[in-house]
Amino acid sequence: MTATQKRGVRVRFAPSPTGFLHVGSVRTALFNWIFAKQNSGKFILRIEDTDKERSKPEYEKNILESLKWLGLDWDEGPSPNGAQNNADDTQNNAEKSQRESASSRRKSAYIGDYGPYRQSERIKIYRNYIERLIGEGRAYRCFCSKEQLESDRQTMLAEGLPPKYGGRCRNIKKEDGEKRMKNGEACVIRFVVPETDVEFNDLVRGNVKFSGELMGDMIIAKSEDEPLYNFAATIDDELMEITHVIRAEEHLSNTPKQIFLQQALNFREIKYAHIPLILNPDRSKMSKRYLESSVNDYRSGGYLPEAMLNFLSLLGWHPKEEKEILGIDEIIKEFDIKRVQKAGAVFNIEKLNWINSQYIKKKTNTELAALLRIFLENKNIDAEDEFVAKVAGAEKERVKTIAELAEAAEFFFKLPDYGPELLTWKNRTAAETKNAINESLKMLDEIPEEKFAREEIGNALQQLIEKTGRGEVLWPIRAALSGQKASPDPLEIMGILGKKETERRLKIAMKKL
RNA sequence: GGCCCUGUCGUCUAGUCUGGUCUAGGACACGAGCUUUUCAAGCUCGGUACACGGGUUCGAAUCCCGUCGGGGCUGCCA
């Protein structure tokens, strides 16, 4: 290949819409995105939906939505508007969208000059290359049955040989192949893999070498109109002028296959970077079995996108300095693909929690309130913005996720039921407790409603506290106001709740004693 | 089985290329203490790691060889 002319950096994230976006994929997308930003390149989103059985439109939609939520915007790919979540865009619109998809929607549904960006819409393109390879004798029709192949495999395995396709159909003449196919004989298309070595320099792993001898002729398409992954990806990477392929390590052994294809088709060379896998606690590939693995789960679990990106960037990479909380701009500045780790990284939810809590603490109360609202709605709780913001401010120090924040904040909106024993401080009697609340109530009543704020309240209660004791006064108030044994400072709660609600809750407590 | 990748605290990692400043640094988690009206947060302190075995060298986490461990792939999935 001619490395002489420098090409502008173009990277791609190429997910398969066969499930909700996986956090491992997010990290791959993130590294690509960062790489593009660092090199003033383009970040391309390509949907690899050649598997008709498993690919679903709703998964594609989820991928787009998740990327948008994370802020990983793409320069080329399916139109981001396609990710918009129109409430009525579900059931009864299925018909309509089907009609549209046939014509206008398809053509306009992507941005960029290298489209379409959905492999299912590129079938004709692949078909040309398949015909070309067959024409050049570099690909052929294979009529071997699956049963036959399986028994071949077993035989080779039993003999201790590498289980590869032996090339039984390789010498079938092109014309004979065409004829048999037209007569309805089932066949697939295989690529003649050269029996040579391929070597490439991986940006994270250094030199890697594979032997073509061990591979056997690979299937590149089930038929002219049904290309398979390695083939379609190779064609697209060339046509979309991809310069760097950054992907998970599980694709390392696909790389020689793609390089063989590139060489046969006279495509340009591509630089590869295979990043380590994200692992379960038992060090196997991250999966649902152990951990929530889709972005959805974390989004609905109350994790912030910036925390997710920060955490994921630290899985397999680390900046030079000993700094862990990094905004996306800092990550872009510091990131170096050559510094990424070679070994897999266990997904450590504790660390994610900590990072998330750091980002929560940094948010303003107003920002938090907006996020909190969504979670509150699920609990059928609604209130004024100002109030929600104050509540968020009172609780943000003690939560790790927005979901936890909603949980912790609930009592502000709705006093939970509790037993009278909760009200007593240590071994004080009910009468003492009742008295303390009553005294507090009297002090509180002196404060005019508009001055009912934390500092003022503290002053009002000061004498009583000095006389009776902090715990004796404040504990019953806390319990009465929150209905629980852990909460923010009762003085703060009172300020947020306001005079009327505070008095109401204290009186409820009195009745319980 | 074969091919490929990989191996520093429980976990994420710094250090490895360019041997000494590393009796191995940071972070999360954990434990103790401080603070204290609860729970947190915060602060201080603490324990824990160079997979193993050989070499090379005055000196090895760092270089070489071997062993063992872990993972991925081995699909008419991606």
Give a description of the structure.
The protein is of the alpha/beta class and 513 residues long. It has a domain of 99 residues: Arc Repressor Mutant, subunit A (Orthogonal Bundle), CATH 1.10.10. Helix content is 47%, strand content 11%. It has a 4-stranded antiparallel β-sheet. A two-stranded parallel sheet has the order 1-2. Strand 11, helix 9 and strand 12 form a beta-alpha-beta unit. About 5% of the residues have low confidence. The structure holds one RNA strand of 78 nucleotides.
CATH architecture of the domain at 415-513: Orthogonal Bundle
| Backbone shape | elongated
Task: Tell me the radius of gyration.
Answer: 31 Å
Q: What would the CATH topology of the domain at 415-513 be?
A: Arc Repressor Mutant, subunit A
Q: How much helix, percentage-wise, in residues?
A: 40-55%
Distance between the termini: 86 Å
Please write the CATH class name of the domain at 415-513: Mainly Alpha
Number of separate helices: 21
Strand and helix layout:
Elements: E1 10-13, H1 23-38, E2 42-45, H2 57-70, E3 77-78, H3 94-102, H4 104-108, E4 110-111, H5 123-135, E5 139-142, H6 146-158, H7 174-182, E6 188-191, E7 197-202, E8 206-211, E9 218-223, E10 226-227, H8 229-239, E11 244-248, H9 255-265, E12 271-275, E13 278-279, H10 295-300, H11 305-313, H12 328-334, E14 345-346, H13 349-362, H14 365-377, H15 385-395, H16 402-413, H17 430-445, H18 454-468, H19 470-482, H20 490-497, H21 499-512
Parallel strand pairs: 1-2, 11-12, 13-14
Antiparallel strand pairs: 3-4, 5-6, 6-9, 7-8, 9-10
The chain binds one RNA strand of 78 nucleotides through α6, β8, β9, α8 and β14.
